[in-house]
Design brief:
Layout: E1 14-16, E2 29-30, H1 35-47, E3 52-57, E4 61-67, E5 74-82, E6 87-94, H2 103-117
Antiparallel strand pairs: 1-6, 2-6, 3-4, 4-5, 5-6
Amino acid sequence: MPGRLASCPDSPNCVSSDAAEPSHHVPPFAIIVPAKEAWLLVREAVNDIPRTTITEVTDNYLHAECRSMVFRFVDDLELELRPGEGIIAVRSASRTGYSDFGVNRSRVERLRSVLQSRRLVK
């Protein structure tokens, strides 16, 4: 059941684990440690992403702003803990423009890699 994450627009500059379209879909993060522990450590991992500022965090939702290095464009990164499903849903999207040249998908997959290396997700 989708929760709080926004839908992706038609433009190719957004990925989401809630998206049905293959061009926008990324798998959620399947947690392999207790949900509360995973959530604390995921927040630390997001905080470590360069040029990223966490702007909102609750017991099950996180919103961060990620700035591009050169032009300082802002992308939105959202995570939603869904302990009943054993996942963290994820969405990364550009605020402006049409194409992102795969930046949002790469961001999500780099974060997945970090979380896997820390043995938090499959």
